[in-house]
Amino acid sequence: MKITISVRHLLLLLYAILLTSRIAVIIGDVQSSTFWIVLQILYICIFLAVYSFNDSKFNILLNKKKNISTMIMLLLILHTVLWGIVITNDSFKELIFDQFLSQMIFLLVLISTVLIVKKYNFLSDFIKVSYYCLSFFLVYHFLKYINELDLSGVLNIFKTEGRIRANFGFGHYNTLGISCVCNICLIFLLKDKKQSCWGYGLKILFLIVSILMLLCSASRNALISILIYGVVLFLLNIERMINSKTIATILKVFIVFSIFAIVAIVLFPNFNVLMSNANRATLFKHAIPELLKSGRWLFGLGYASNTSYGMELTGYQTYWLDNAYVYYLVTTGVLGFILILVLALIMFRKLLKNTKDLYAFKQIFSMFCMYLFWGMFEPSLFQCGVIANYSLLVVFLVAADKNNEIFSWKRIEERKSKRVN
Hints:
By secondary structure, this protein is mainly alpha-helical. It has 17 helices and no strands.
């Protein structure tokens, strides 16, 4: 039996090794060391070398219309260089430089992965590899820490008392919650094709494990984000369900208004208590006032990691900056915050515009809305050390370029159109 191994297979294998190592380091299964840093650098070098080997494909970098992703990633690199080297804080330069190195390596991994995925048109295979790697860790930790399985406090997730939480060895409850939601999203994005009974059974198994671990994490952020995904996807498809555009618009406004009303009724009476219990009140009581008091509001206190600020290694009493938007505002000031906000808005606009083409783009835009919501509770936006940024962020960037050929879900859209007609 002859087995042929193509460049595509080798690149996917390298990505699987990198993703597996990053997940293991992030959740604490292995200690971070020079070896893992060297592995990432080798990955970057190999991917960029393979990408630039064929000069005919190198012009992708120069094609502005189909290369929004590269522009966004280069601006992220510019942001990191400016606040990691040029605009620093002398009182904790070493902490800023450590964050600079980690973030730069992550961004180079990101850009090299996106370029290769676009060059070889294997986004569906990339999603599949990401899904199996993450599923392996979830199932392994589920079995290893099976004694933590306890659903008795599920009904108390949104209450201030009686909430029971488990992290199944993922270090933090929200890390587990976001990882489970990420895996569920990857399942939704898997290529639609005939599967064997074993393949379908594994998908069901991984989905059940992800849901159970998500519920046990009691991560409000992760659970609400799934609701946001569903609502946005439903709103994007209303016009296809209702022939009248006017009625569809009225229905959209009604649904959005109803959701805001329900959230206000449920959360506002206990808002201050929830904020205090979730340690988010410190953002407004300490972090932002500390920024204003320092006089560095324009350029920020210093682009160090959230851990450095949370453990009070910077000399500023900001405590944990568990909000991506406040994190960028405090660490990089108004200028850095505006740059990140502009990048997020560019991606939002491009992904929204692309929803007119394929059903897959509607899914991805809904997931990006969910991704932006994650940033309200964790410093996860475009940051290293977040598992979802090694998979979903790649999908968002590739989708922003509106390359219909790279997506294999067109058959889903065609079949759904036939059903409607």
